[in-house]
Amino acid sequence: MRFSILSLIALLTMSGCADKGAFDLFKMDAAHERSIEELRTDSIVLSLETKAIISALYLNPVYPQQYKDGEYFIAAIYFENDIRSVKKRDINDIGYHLTLNGKEPVEMEELPEKDLRRNLIPVRNTWNRFYLIRYKTFSEGALTLQLENNQTGSVVLNYQKGK
Q: What is the pTM of this model?
């Protein structure tokens, strides 16, 4: 009985000590919060081997004033290494296609390592290839970004286009 009363007093005393939580230490600006909300990641796995990983950020809701003339995405894509090739694998030469609602991109630019636009996506590593992709404008509704390969499979990332 004595132990339970002392425990209750200690518990009540300690519960009032914390005025800040751990998440109070991580402050983000509005654009960074929106980019976390619009980031989607998935992978293509075949026979328990990861063939590709895509992380894509839909830029239109994050930076609506800057990206108006189409549907813009920035994607970080990893492709498995081919040990027979010294060339780093690229989306254009290994049979992958990246479509939005079944349509090919209007423009797809690989971003070099020093390009500041790579900071728009909250993904930081050296094994990804980074692309800025523009598709034609779609009306309101669902957007389906699909990375596919006839031999390894496909992955779909779903987004919702606002008004």
A: 0.77
